Amino acid sequence: MNSCVLPTPVPDDDGDKRWHSIHRRFISDCREKDPDVIFIGDCIFETLQDTETWNQYFAPLHCLNFSIRDDCTEHVLWRIENGALDNVNPKIVVLHVGTNNVNSSADEVAEGILANVAKIRQKLNGAYVILPSLLPRGQQPNKLRDKNAKINELVKEMTKGMDRVQTVAIDKGLVQGDGTISHHDMFDYKNLTNTGAKKILEPLYELLSQILNENELERDLTPSE
After folding, report:
1. Bridge partners, 8 (sequence order)
2. Which of 6, 16, 105, 166 has a 20 to 30 A CA-CA distance from 156?
3. How far, in Å, CA of 195 to CA of 173, rounded?
């Protein structure tokens, strides 16, 4: 059985229950706030919270960030099944997960991402689901970088024709001509610096803005009761 599609909480190996505490805080945020956009996933967007790039691009769009650093596809799936998207009605959910599933094949990770899409669609039938591509990782070319590129291809193909599900490429411009990634763009060769984020996240921002503006226009054109 593919572990990437089996909803699983993160084991409390440290003994402080931090992961479950964060999950409960996100559930509370859903009850108390009214976001237009929810980011849910792993380290890539978690590390951007409250950065200059986040505040410039995404905070003005009324976003909540439900990303947790080490989450894999099965962990996000468990969170969604256990209240992470309840009591809330965003126009868009941005899902970024899969780069931490290092021991699974590209096909298994892609299936895990699609399982999350299906669960989001079940919970929030009217929301758009946006899937930013997984980023290259590692200073030098390596098998995980190749696998992430393969996952991106699979997910793009598997989501073709899906209503209100769209992939967006954010993986360009990080790998230099010699095949290396600079620490100026990815401080640990996996997560983005502010410089790296500014370099690649504009296409995502533009897509979110376009969808939100279209929704606003539709609402304005709907005859009042």
Report:
1. none
2. 6
3. 12
Strand partners, 125: none
Q: Is residue 33 part of a domain?
A: yes
Residues sharing a CB contact under 8 Å with residue 167, sequence separation 6 or more, in sequence order: 130, 131, 132, 133, 152, 155, 156, 159
The residue with tokens 């094949």 is 105
Residues listed for the chain: 225
Q: Is residue 221 part of a domain?
A: no
Q: Which domain holds residue 101?
A: 19-211
Distance CA 118, CA 16 (A): 31
> Could you report the per-residue pLDDT of 154-182, keeping only the tens digit for each?
999 999 999 999 999 999 999 999 999 99
Q: Find the CATH number of the domain harbouring 201.
A: 3.40.50.1110
CA–CA separation, 98 and 14 (whole Å): 23
Q: How many domains, the chain?
A: 1
Q: Are β-strands 63-67 and 37-41 bridged in parallel, bridged antiparallel, or unpaired?
A: parallel
Q: 150: Cβ–Cβ under 8 A, 6 or more apart, which residues?
A: 106
The 10s digit of each residue's pLDDT in 90-118 is 999 999 999 999 999 999 999 999 999 99
Is residue 68 included in any domain, yes or no?
Answer: yes
Indicate whether 3 belongs to any domain.
Answer: no
**Local structure of 175: helix, strand or coil:** strand
For residue range 40-79, list pLDDT tens digits in order.
999 999 999 988 999 999 999 999 999 999 999 999 999 9
Q: Give the model confidence (pLDDT) of 112-147 as tens digits.
A: 999 999 999 999 999 999 999 999 999 999 999 999
